[in-house]
Every structure is written in C-alpha cells, then in structure tokens.
Amino acid sequence: HTLMIITMILAMVLYFMASMIINELVDRYMLEGQTIELMWTIAPAVILLFITTPSLRLLYLMDEIHNPIMTIKTIGHQWYWSYEYSDFVNVEFDSYMTPYESDNKSMFRLLETDNHVTLPMHSFIRIIVTAADVLHSWTIPSLGIKADATPGRLNQSSFMINRPGLLYGQCSEICGANHSFMPIVIESVSTESFIEWIK
C-alpha cells in the first residue's frame, strides 16, 4: 500500500521535473500563487493520512492475542529471571547465568543459563513479563521481541517459533550494575519433546 503511494509520488515529481527542464515557457501568474502553495501544503497531509490509517489498524491487530496455546510468566530479578508455566501445576524455576568455561567450546560467553525456557515450536505462545525490583527488559532479538518488565505492571507479548534450536537474549534495560549478566535462553523443541519435558 505504502509502496504504491510512494511510486505515484515519485512518478509525479519526475514528470514535473522533466516538464520544467523541457518547457521553456514562463507564466508570470505562476511565479506567485497562493493556490498552488495551499495545494502543496495540503497534499502531503492527505497522503500521510492514506499511509497512517492502514498502519494504525495493523498496529492494533498486532497487539491482539488470540487463543494462545500456553502462557508463560517471566519475572525479572537482580540478576536472574524466574519463569512460571501458568498452564501447568508447579512448573516454575529460576534461570541464572552459567559461569564461562573456556574448555567448553560450544558455550557462548555471558549468554548461557543453567535452566533453559523450553517451548514447543509451531505453537502460539503468550508471555507475561513483570519485575520484582527494578526495570528490566526481556529481549530475544531473533524472535523480534522486547517486552519491558516493570514492577507492579504486567506486560504481555506473543510469538510463535518456527524452527527447533536455541534462541539467545539478554536484559536490554540498564537495570543495575550487572544487567548485562541476565541472559535468556529459549530452547525450541517438538511438541512431543515438550510434553516429555513438562512431565
């Protein structure tokens, strides 16, 4: 939609530029014209309305969460994350950063945790984020998710993972001296593996 509007604007501007280069005639009444000035002020405003109306609709639709398969509650502490699987009984754990071992070549420095958040792939998942002490931010760049964890407030977001593997993230809020030592690891597995893990 926006690309079509930009293409029409570009074609119109190129046409005007070409006609000004080719045309040698000068109209003395076009040198001062309040009508044309009014038009080139109103026209961009109308164009912006045509761009923003569908964009606002999409923005609100993106925030709607329809029938999630499961809900996870994430609580930010200094300097670790707590996770609660709300749809299951007594499934909650804390996730601390694992100290770096130079012998283990498969370990990412400052990104590995002792407990991974295990989630089924191809499932619509809602995450509720809050904090217990100060501001945090639960961020997984490869999922395109950044949810602020604010004490006394529940923020929610949703996502669906399309492939198996490990997804890494960190707290991206300057929440204290060790905020960069709050890694997040999501382990995406098949539905069968998730059911076995949750048992």
UniProtKB/TrEMBL annotation:
One Pfam family of this chain: COX2
Domain of life: Eukaryota
Gene Ontology biological process terms in this record: ATP synthesis coupled electron transport
Domain Cytochrome oxidase subunit II copper A binding: start-end pairs: 67-199
Transmembrane spans: 6-26, 38-60
Cofactor note: Binds a copper A center.
Domain Cytochrome oxidase subunit II transmembrane region profile: 1-66
Signal peptide stretch: none
Keyword entries, A-Z: Copper, Electron transport, Magnesium, Membrane, Metal-binding, Mitochondrion, Mitochondrion inner membrane, Respiratory chain, Translocase, Transmembrane, Transmembrane helix, Transport
Molecular function GO terms recorded: copper ion binding; cytochrome-c oxidase activity
Reactions listed under catalytic activity: 4 Fe(II)-[cytochrome c] + O2 + 8 H(+)(in) = 4 Fe(III)-[cytochrome c] + 2 H2O + 4 H(+)(out)
InterPro entries: CcO_II, CcO_II-like_C, CcO_II_C, Copper_CuA, Cupredoxin, Cyt_c_oxidase_su2_TM_dom, Cyt_c_oxidase_su2_TM_sf
Lipid bilayer topology: Multi-pass membrane protein
Keyword Ribosomal protein: no
Compartments, as annotated in UniProt: Mitochondrion inner membrane
Needed co-factor(s): Cu cation
GO terms under cellular component: mitochondrial inner membrane
Similarity-based family: Belongs to the cytochrome c oxidase subunit 2 family.
Quaternary structure, from the entry: Component of the cytochrome c oxidase (complex IV, CIV), a multisubunit enzyme composed of a catalytic core of 3 subunits and several supernumerary subunits. The complex exists as a monomer or a dimer and forms supercomplexes (SCs) in the inner mitochondrial membrane with ubiquinol-cytochrome c oxidoreductase (cytochrome b-c1 complex, complex III, CIII).
Function of the protein: Component of the cytochrome c oxidase, the last enzyme in the mitochondrial electron transport chain which drives oxidative phosphorylation. The respiratory chain contains 3 multisubunit complexes succinate dehydrogenase (complex II, CII), ubiquinol-cytochrome c oxidoreductase (cytochrome b-c1 complex, complex III, CIII) and cytochrome c oxidase (complex IV, CIV), that cooperate to transfer electrons derived from NADH and succinate to molecular oxygen, creating an electrochemical gradient over the inner membrane that drives transmembrane transport and the ATP synthase.
Protein name: Cytochrome c oxidase subunit 2
Source species: Zootermopsis nevadensis (Dampwood termite)
